[in-house]
Write a structure and sequence with these properties.
Blueprint lengths: L7 E2 L5 E3 L6 E6 L5 H8 L10 E3 L5 E3 L5 E3 L13 H4 E6 L3 H4 L6 H18 L6 E3 H4 L13 H6 L18 H11 L6 H12 L10 H15 L5
Parallel strand pairs: 1-5, 3-7, 3-8, 4-7
Antiparallel strand pairs: 2-6, 4-5
Helix pairs in contact: 7-9
């Protein structure tokens, strides 16, 4: 970690040893009323939750857990066959009250702090763009963060996340089961099908999140899989 990217260190006791190398980065929101509340919780041994970094709305970056250690940010989660996401990822919490306390846009200062931090993490660990994900991507039945207001397009412009496809037509899968299988093939846990669809929509079509399979998200998923299969989605 380049120390100039971190403004302060507040060590959390909530970590253990990794069981595998880092191959993912997971973006969260804190979902608490204030940054102080979030920091206190992530440093409380009884809470058993933490992250490697927290970024406030004014762009202050706090490191809580060394990247060599396994922070406890992902919980029960899954992505592309990986079930121990905590061991395989770096977790970044963005201070935002979330859907429970007054969800709002992520300020420019916060995003401007996230971009160089994430770029450094991705470069050092050689993380594929497809493995820069939101908490809702890896835990669709439990989580909504960072939510529909998060600017994934900004990360994509810096090649820190996948570009959002721009399909020219709708694509209807033969049936819902075929869509779910394609969604699983892309990386999602489809145990709760409608929740997985909502997570996909929240990430790739945030203006309408209804859990319904339609031709628009069918085309988006098809394009994402095509890009991956042609080797252009790393």
């Amino acid at each position: 970690m380049r120390k100039w990217l971190v403004h302060r260190e507040v060590p959390s006791p909530n970590w253990n040893e990794r069981k595998q190398p880092v191959s993912m980065a997971v973006i969260h929101y804190t979902g608490m009323r204030t940054a102080e509340e979030a920091l206190e919780r992530m440093c409380d041994p009884a809470a058993e939750v933490s992250a490697h970094y927290m970024i406030t709305e004014d762009g202050q970056v706090t490191q809580l857990v060394d990247e060599e250690k396994r922070a406890w940010h992902a919980g029960r989660s899954y992505w592309r066959g990986e079930t121990d996401v905590n061991s395989a990822s770096v977790g970044i919490e963005l201070v935002n009250p979330g859907h429970e306390w007054g969800y709002r846009d992520f300020p420019d200062a916060q995003m401007e702090a996230l971009v160089p931090l994430l770029a450094d993490i991705v470069k050092r660990h050689d993380i594929p763009r497809a493995n820069v994900v939101g908490h809702s991507d890896i835990a669709p039945a439990r989580k909504e963060d960072p939510g529909e207001l998060f600017d994934w397009d900004l990360l994509a412009r810096y090649r820190l996340a996948l570009d959002k496809p721009k399909p020219t037509m709708r694509l209807v899968f033969d049936n819902d089961g075929a869509f779910y299988l394609a969604l699983e093939r892309f990386g999602y846990d489809i145990t709760d099908g409608p929740a997985a669809v909502r997570a996909f929509q929240r990430r790739w079509r945030p203006h309408r999140i209804d859990g319904e399979i339609d031709g628009q998200i069918g085309a988006l998923l098809f394009e994402l899989l095509l890009e991956r299969d042609m080797g252009r989605a790393r």
